[in-house]
Specification:
mainly beta, disordered C terminus, OB fold (Dihydrolipoamide Acetyltransferase, E2P), 13-stranded mixed β-sheet, 43% strand, single chain, 7% helix, 3 helices
């Protein structure tokens, strides 16, 4: 699973990118609003097919709502990008969304004595880092670093759950948000940033066993009633048109975007 819903601001006019003799795409750099005391998150956005026809009207500074995009990560450049989705122009009155849902498998065991993977702070915070491999098709996958942070008094200790229940190969679905840390290097005086996924909730895959699954029988009978038409008789396809076209899988690869060989990046 790979599903992203965000609000963003265009920092440039979309530019056309050649992908094949019969297909083109639009690419545009965006800024996601900051989360808490973090910095705004810069991210590249790619739009395909007929959705690109209307997206090309976007101008610098436009506020956008993007629903159902796919998140990718380029190991070489260490940058995230968004692909596809339903796009709408919004105003500042529109609420800010920043939701990432990913499903895949953990790529490592977490060693409690490794400060890069798990640590506690003097303020009582617990921080745990894990990496998720998310299938992108054609026997390839993207690797996403994410982390959980909580105090010992929190009702839901996601950091502790990651430490105790995830191992290499563990199936996991996470919900989080994209955040960016920004700082000035003390030696070079250069401004640097690092974008990552902050975990908000997670679901472990069911444990497998050798026995056959138990049949679940319904206990309630629901009467068959006709449902009145909603939204003036329009369907979801009507509402999504034309933004919802070509949102699914099998999107064309953009030139120079991703490596075929994946290795887990260091924290």
């Amino acid at each position: 699973m790979n599903f992203v819903t965000v609000c963003a601001q265009a920092t440039e006019v979309p530019r056309e990118v050649y992908t094949s003799a019969t297909s083109t795409a639009l690419r545009c750099n965006l800024l996601l609003p900051p989360v808490g005391n973090k910095a705004p998150t810069p991210i590249e956005f790619n739009v395909y097919g007929k959705a690109a026809e209307r997206f090309q009207r976007t101008t610098k500074g436009d506020l956008l709502y993007i629903h159902g995009a796919k998140l990718r990560f380029d190991l070489e450049s260490r940058t995230h990008s968004l692909h596809g989705g339903i796009i709408a122009s919004v105003t500042e009155a529109f609420p800010i969304f920043n939701t990432v849902i990913l499903g895949g498998r953990c790529v490592k065991d977490i060693q409690q004595d490794d400060a890069r993977a798990f640590k506690t702070t003097a303020d009582g915070l617990m921080i745990c880092n894990q990496t998720l491999s998310v299938n992108t098709g054609r026997n390839q996958a993207d690797l996403f670093n994410f982390y959980a942070i909580n105090t010992a008094e929190d009702k839901l200790n996601n950091a502790e759950l990651l430490l105790n229940f995830t191992r290499k190969g563990t199936g996991l679905t996470i919900q989080g948000r994209l955040i960016t840390d920004s700082w000035v290097d003390k030696e070079t005086k250069e401004k640097k940033s690092w974008t990552k996924i902050q975990l908000t909730s997670m679901t472990l895959a069911p444990k497998t066993s050798g026995s056959a699954p138990v049949e679940i029988k319904p206990h309630t009978t629901v009467a068959n009633h006709e449902v009145a038409g909603l939204w003036g008789g329009k369907t979801a396809d009507d509402i999504a048109e034309p933004w919802g076209l070509n949102v699914g899988s099998n999107l064309p690869e953009l030139p120079g975007q991703f490596n075929d060989t994946l290795t887990a990046p260091p924290f």
